Amino acid sequence: MYVYILGGFLGSGKTTLLMKLASMYTKRGLKTALLVNESGEIGVDGATLKAEGYDAIELPDGCICCSLSGTLQSALKNIARDIDPDIIIVEPTGLALPHKVKELVHYAMIDEEATYIIGVADVQRFEDLIKKKEQFFKMQMSGADFVLINKCDLATPEKIEQIKAWIHESFPEKPIQEISAKTGENMDKLYEMMK
Ligand SMILES: Nc1nc2c(ncn2[C@@H]2O[C@H](COP(=O)(O)OP(=O)(O)OP(=O)(O)O)[C@@H](O)[C@H]2O)c(=O)[nH]1
Ligand SMILES: [Mg+2]
Predict the structure, then answer these.
(1) Which of 17, 59, 89, 139 is 20 to 30 A from 146 via CA?
(2) Which domain holds residue 108?
(3) CA of residue 46 to ligand 2 center, whole Å
């Protein structure tokens, strides 16, 4: 069982990406369960995800990396026991610290093969976020196994390169990939990275 945690600020595109990944894995015959701690604009809730045919659990309001840590852990255990998926994708809120979520996953699950954090950065709001919350952004990305620059359909190649360079300077060891979770651009490359 592989666990993917989508880490990124409010509105960066985590839910959009979650839906794309879920459909990609399901099409490839992998049983995928979704765990969302949603506070989002798109408002995809557990019921919607279930209606789309996914095994989905929606966690109540609150943050799964702090006040809801116990709820997260029991949800993970229930998913493993009742659904036994190949893949679990977890979307914390945009204010959560994904490395804390990862620690909780480790404590909760004895049979997970690997847990990865996918960092999601928003090309459109990048400069603004760095201006206002640089430290928080760095903390959110610090545990990421790789960083996605999302919404690349909205930016020029030069802009994308600038952001890539900035992220590379802060995290030289992390692979960086630009994608559009909306149009599906480079999702094939992401899939390769996730294997
Ligand atoms: N153009 C474009 N818009 C995108 C892309 N990904 C997400 N969006 C839009 O950005 C907005 C926020 O996307 P969400 O997927 O809800 O972002 P989120 O990270 O789940 O948001 P929170 O759960 O509130 O933190 C929505 O209006 C999406 O349609 C993208 O690749 N390109
Ligand atoms: Mg969301």
Answers:
(1) 59
(2) 2-194
(3) 12
pLDDT category of residue 41 using cuts at 50, 70 and 90: low
Residues with a CB atom less than 6 Å from ligand 1: 8, 10-16, 38-42, 94, 150-151, 153-154, 180-182
- Please state the domain count of the chain: 1
CATH of the domain at 70: 3.40.50.300
**What's the rounded Cα separation, in Å, for the pair 15 and 170?**
26
Residue 101, token pair as written in the block: 């979520």
The pLDDT assigned to 164 comes to: 98
Averaged over 107-127, what is the pLDDT?
89
Q: Which atom of ligand 1 is nearest to the CA of 179?
A: 31
The rounded Å distance from CA 165 to ligand 2 centre is 26
Is 182 exposed, middle or buried, given 0-12, 13-18 or 19+ CB atoms closer than 10 A? middle
Give residue 84's region: left, alpha or beta (phi > 0; psi -120 to 50): left
CB neighbours of residue 60 within 10 Å? 9
What H or E segment, with its residue span, contains residue 49? helix 46-51
The whole-model pTM stands at: 0.93
Report the 10 Å Cβ neighbour count for 73: 16
- Nearest bound ligand to the CA of residue 181: 1
